[in-house]
Please model this.
Amino acid sequence: MGEMGFEAKAIRFAQGETELFMFTAPGDRIADIADISRVQRKEGGVLGGFQRKDIRGHIADIAEYLGKGDVIFPNPIIIALAPGVRFTAARGPKSMLGNAAAGTLHILGDNARGWIVDGQQRSLALEQSGSKLPVPVIAFVSADIAVHREQFILVNKARPLPRGVVDVLLPSLDAAVLPRDLGPRKIPNVLVDALNQNRNSPFHGLIIRAGEENGGAVVNDQALLKAIKRSISSPLGALAPYGGKGREADIQAMYAILSGFWSAVRTVFPAAWGLSPRESRLMHSAGIETLGFLMDRILGRPDAAANPFAHSIEALERIAPYCRWTEGRWEEIDLEWNEVEYTAKSINRLRDHLIRLEHRPRAAA
Model:
């Protein structure tokens, strides 16, 4: 932006204790006012940012539209401004503005730059096209990244926001500000984050999460999230006693069960663990979801949660001789190892087969 900064005639008003401004800016100067904060993992696993990746086709379409000349662009860009901005109220009567004030907004120096909360694709298209079209901007003042994330999710709630972006942001948000249908998704995401980041977890660094660049990640987070959500919500789920309906969530207890079970899976099937889904159906979404059913069966039994690792080892060893995660054929369900797919039919066949195997007395195995 440079030292000269940016100035605009604006209207200032308040919502509660938050200060907001309405003004217009030339399209090619939006990038001078605010940055795009991408979802990413910083050093130590700390979550940074909140924006999804660029959608190049969408940006190109907007830029092409702007290039047609006589166009309108009424959709506002929403920006979170740093507290370093300054507002100079205009002199004169203010009665017509109610609780608002007209004046000049000064965004001076890099310490006052903001972050785009809504409109990143539009702002990139404006910059790419070099358009000087006046664009409406609504800005609020906050340097708190948690507030930016909350507003980002609330603004995009009714739009097709990628599920992975929402999921990776949820653990960092206060449940009280979440829309009702997003609140229950927070606990599974907190657990998946913990499983991915804890160095003692069997899933450490193996889970694919939005905004994380990790070439060693092989497990689809959505499959694991689905298994965890089902376990919490099902009356017979292994996690239900610690976070089911009407109960206060015990995150530590749920993490202990998940870590114990999947550590046992890694111990019993070491040759299939950590490979890509193309090389191992154990790490495939079908395998993750199927074993989630098995976890509920094994650890949903009385006293099993007291030592989830030991109980899981005992049960998994019964089925191990019959499993074909990386080669061979699942004889009883007539499937080659790599024919197991992430479909309801395939998962149900494998789930029922594993449950039958696990139910057999040890002597029969």
Residues 67 and 129 are 7 Å apart (CA to CA).
